[in-house]
Amino acid sequence: MLGDQRNNSELFWEPSCSLEVLQLRAQVYASIRAFFKSRCVLEVETPLLSQASGTEPTIQFFETHDQSGLKQHRLFLQTSPEFAMKRLLAASSGSIFQLAKAFRKGEVGRFHNPEFTLLEWYRIGFDLDALMDETADLLVILLPSLANQKARKLPYKTLFKDAVGVDPLSASVTDFSAAADRFELPDAKSICGQDRSTWLDFLFSCVVQPVLVNTPLVMVYDYPACQASLARLKRDDKTVCERFEVFVKGIELGNGFFELSDPVEQSRRFNREIAHRQHGGLPAAVKDQRLIAALEKGLPHCSGIAIGMDRLLMLRAGVDDISEVLSFGFGRA
Amino acid sequence: MASYSTNEFKGGLKIMLDNDPCSIIENEFVKPGKGQAFSRVKIRNLKTGRVIERTFKSSESVEAADVVEIEMQFLYHDGEFWHFMVPDTFEQYSAGETALGDAKIWLKDQDVCTVTLWNDQPLSVTPPNFVELTITETDPGLKGDTSGGGGKPATLETGAVVRVPLFVQIGELIKVDTRKGEYVGRSKE
Questions:
Q1: Side by side, which strands form the sheet with B38-45?
Q2: How far apart are CA A325 and CA A312, in angstroms?
Q3: Protein fold of A15-151+217-332
Q4: Positive or negative CA dihedral for A102, A103, A107, A111?
Q5: Of B126, B153, B169, at which residue does a domain stop?
Q6: Which one of A20, A77, A283, B96 has the largest count of C-beta atoms within 10 Å of its C-beta?
């Protein structure tokens, strides 16, 4: 009995964030809802548990199963609400937003919690530039420290070239490797090998992002085509895609796309990623055929973005660890 | 051979890197939303004491280092080796000058230190945070000066030299903070 009591008092049952931060989160959510209401964007809710999974080889899903009769069905916790929201768009929902939980296996760190909250929204008829402007409008409301600060927009290529000294689009793997030597990153070669996309991720994380620490708000656009994900390639320059990322003080807050609506191209990208996962020995992904069917019906021209709410709250509250903005961080969940 | 995945990296974990035993100071998980995950790790090389930064691909596995820290009593110095004993088991270890490093100027018989063993060989020795040593040599202070302003160098029985206040004399036992190499006060004994 005594032993039990001691064990219970050693468990961290208390919240990992302060009560002030709980209130701050509620305030921020209220501001978001007011912002979108004033712009006639509908709040929606979609399933967290899905029969299809994400396919990206760099994002790992949590999986479970359901049983009906003798049959077992694989089910997946969503890694993002993107597919379901696009199906709503194809069903003529108009512009929509959602505050949703997303789940990514293995992502634990100062800026990562395996279960986290995304604010994701889609704007019918918006191009990427219009969405960047709207994102800046919202962030200035949610982060008072950004008031009176001008949002910078920078092409990926310019930013990368200024920080790293090589052109991310045309440089060879040898050039990347030489740059890594200059920045004393001895592990780069063995980690990145011949993979251009990994080289870009590596140098961006280790060299470019630290440079952004003093920049209040920057939107980085025209991502290299090999990092297109679910964005369209640019019409007049196929070496880049219609994707942007938002950074506040060097912290990656969100990812925006001018959405790919071509079902054939989407299906091709899914297949390529599924093959890549298989090749890397990762759990098999289940392709979302319902999304492909929705794209065949027709996705209106739209742009969409997801913002990490927990990181935004970290900036707002001025804390260094994501668990300090979560009621119960992963270690206490 | 035991190994750790980068997911298990945390402060204090001992790993092998470039054939040297190292201790992890901190681990930062880095991952672009749509990209490859990395672990950026600050590591101390336990042989050289140097702190370096390294990057690992996430979930890569790294060989564990067989490194343990054990409290041992310092027995004696035979001119070449410093001999230590684990009080509970009476097991004895001898460490060379490289492993002793700066610790050698603080150690007196019977002192309990932390000895870091790598593959059961002493790799480094951390002296107690505070030691009490007798002054063997120092200038006589100016008469009547009790303020201690300025101070003077004093040689201790182990050969270490620390700055002490002017009123402290030869033969006195003083307490020293080994982490800073600073005089703390006269010992009560």
A1: B14-17, B20-30, B38-45, B51-57
A2: 10
A3: BirA Bifunctional Protein; domain 2 (3.30.930)
A4: positive
A5: B126
A6: A77
pLDDT at residue A208 is higher than 90? yes
CATH number for the domain that contains residue B9: 2.30.30.30
Q: Is the pLDDT of residue A9 over 70?
A: no
Both tokens of A231, joined, read 């964005």
A59 CB neighbours in chain B (<8 A) are 34
A77 HSE (CA, 13 A, CB side): 15
pTM: 0.82
A206 touching B, CB under 8 A? yes
Rounded to a whole number, what is the largest CA-CA distance in chain A? 73
Structural domain for B8, as ranges: 3-63
Whole-number Cα distances in Å, B158 to A137, A209, B105: 68, 51, 6
Most confident range (mean pLDDT) of B33-37, B138-142, B168-172 is B168-172
- The reply to whether B86 and B118 lie within a common domain is yes
Quote ipTM for the complex.
0.82
Q: Is the pLDDT of residue A207 over 50?
A: yes
- In chain B, the number of structural domains is 3
Residues 6+ apart with CB under 8 A from B98: none
The sheet that has A49-50: what strands, in order across it?
A49-50, A71-77, A63-68
Dump pLDDT digits (tens) for A214-265: 999 999 999 999 888 888 999 999 999 999 999 999 999 999 999 999 999 9
Residues of B with CB under 8 A from a CB of A: 7, 28-38, 40, 54-59
Residue whose structure tokens are 């090998």 = A193
**For residue B88, what are the contacts with CB-CB under 8 A and spacing of at least 6?**
none
Q: Which of B27, B44, B63 is the last residue of a domain?
A: B63
- Taking contacts as CB-CB distances below 8 angstroms, the residues of chain A near B38 are 191, 201-202, 205-206
Determine, for residues A108 and B40 on separate chains, whether the beta-carbon distance falls below 8 Å: no
With CB atoms and an 8 Å threshold, state whether B32 touches A201: yes
Instruction: Report strand pairing: A42-43 vs A96-103.
Output: parallel
Q: Which whole number is the average pLDDT over B7-32?
A: 91
Residue A100 and residue A47: Cα distance in Å, rounded? 9
- C-alpha to C-alpha distance for A331 and A271, rounded to whole angstroms: 36
A107 to chain B, any CB pair closer than 8 A? The answer is yes
